């Protein structure tokens, strides 16, 4: 069972100095009152049923103190199960019994009460952090379109040429004599400067030239 106590300290000061002793006594009585936390495991969660939805839904049984949804550290995608903590263990047991094998969005929920001593010590680590989906497409697009240095371009070219040579070797082993330019040939073509075609200048007679001048030029 989880226990939460209010610890008496120098910071707990009564508003009336004369009633400080009575205040400390009441505080000690409050410390004796234990909060009986209860946690349930919820599996086979449907998509879209995340932290906020889980807390709102399970609040119908009682006060929900914490919700933790298992997510992938690499992608952030949910793994389909999570944990819900109530401020009362009896309420947690009732919720687990009521929601076990409950049909929700074509999924049969699997709920089970978990004793506090059986929980992992870091089960609630970062439970209150709002999960933000990362734009992975934008990230990879930026990485792919980044400006590369000459060394990086040379390294990439060497890899592609090596792959082409491996293909040629495999073809020869199969008895296939086939030559192809590959990446190296494409790079050579790119480097060769294309000579521009020179256009021969042709004398054009202006349409605006008078007919009289044309006849004189013919003579």
UniProtKB/TrEMBL annotation:
- RNA-binding as UniProt keyword: yes
- Write out the transmembrane intervals: none
SMART domains for this protein: RRM
The UniProt entry's GO CC annotations, sorted and at most eight, read: nucleolus
Record-annotated RRM domain positions = 38-116
Q: Does the keyword Nucleus apply?
A: yes
The residue ranges flagged as biased composition, category Basic residues, are: 188-210
Report the locations given in the UniProt record.
Answer: Nucleus, Nucleolus
Q: Which CDD domains match?
A: RRM_NIFK_like
Where does the record place the region Disordered?
Answer: 187-219
User: One MF term from GO for this chain?
Assistant: RNA binding
Q: Which UniProt keywords apply?
A: Nucleus, RNA-binding
State the SUPFAM superfamilies in the record.
RNA-binding domain, RBD
Q: What is this protein called?
A: RRM domain-containing protein
């Amino acid at each position: 069972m989880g226990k939460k106590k209010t610890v008496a300290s120098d910071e707990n000061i009564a508003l009336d100095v004369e009633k400080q002793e009575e205040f400390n006594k009441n505080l000690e009585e409050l410390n004796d009152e234990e909060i009986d936390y209860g946690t349930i495991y919820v599996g086979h969660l449907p998509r879209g049923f995340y932290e906020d939805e889980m807390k709102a839904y399970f609040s119908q049984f009682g006060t929900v103190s914490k919700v933790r949804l298992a997510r992938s550290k690499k992608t952030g995608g949910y793994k389909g199960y999570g944990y819900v903590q109530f401020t009362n263990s009896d309420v947690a047991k009732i919720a687990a019994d009521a929601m076990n094998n409950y049909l929700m969005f074509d999924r049969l929920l699997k709920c089970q009460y978990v004793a506090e001593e059986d929980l992992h010590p870091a089960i609630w680590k970062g439970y209150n952090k709002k999960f933000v989906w990362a734009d992975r497409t934008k990230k990879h697009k930026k990485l792919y379109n980044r400006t590369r240095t000459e060394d990086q371009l040379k390294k990439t070219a060497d890899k592609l040429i090596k792959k082409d040579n491996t293909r040629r070797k495999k073809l020869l082993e199969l008895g296939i004599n086939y030559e192809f330019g590959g990446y190296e040939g494409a790079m050579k073509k790119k480097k060769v400067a294309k000579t521009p075609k020179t256009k021969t200048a042709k004398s054009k007679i202006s349409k605006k030239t008078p007919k009289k001048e044309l006849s004189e030029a013919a003579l």
